[in-house]
Design a protein that fits this description.
This protein has four helices and five strands; from the N terminus they run βββαβαβαα. The protein has 139 residues and is an alpha/beta fold. The protein is globular and about 40 Å long.
Length: 139
């Protein structure tokens, strides 16, 4: 069995989280700056290789009515570029509506100040998206 990687793709940063081999627990790994793109892809390929990833989940930022806007289109375009670079690992999307708000709430509850480090919110969001995906897969 392989681990599952989750990416919360934003315009500036990408939050990264990974599951364990049993797909039970989720760990926030890091935050990757979105530019330049060739460095992002290189960094993600390294993370994928180091963690024995078998599937990638990308959070898809849908509008509250379920439609897709500019940000969702950006995530889909990023996924296409990533897929070209890692050909043999499947990529799936997971609805990520309201995960940033929940991530901020989780960090506040744990008394973690994220105001000066927005990357913490991106990592926490990636964890929430992956937990949501795994819960659906395991039910």
């Amino acid at each position: 069995m392989h681990k599952v990687l989750c990416l919360d793709v934003g315009t500036k940063r990408i939050g990264v989280a990974v599951s364990d081999f049993l797909h039970i627990t989720v760990t926030g790994l890091c935050c990757v700056n979105r530019v330049p793109e060739h460095e992002v892809l290189s960094e993600l390929k390294g993370i994928i290789a180091d963690n024995k990833i078998g599937k990638i989940i990308i959070g898809l930022p849908k509008n509250m009515d379920g439609s897709e806007g500019v940000q969702a289109n950006d995530c889909r375009n990023f996924a296409k570029v990533l897929q070209e670079g890692i050909k043999n690992i499947p990529i799936e999307f997971e609805d990520e509506r309201l995960t940033s708000d929940l991530a901020e709430e989780n960090l506040r509850e744990r008394k973690i100040d994220f105001r000066k480090n927005k990357g913490l919110v991106d990592i926490e969001s990636a964890c929430i998206i992956l937990e949501q995906y795994l819960a659906r897969q395991n039910s």
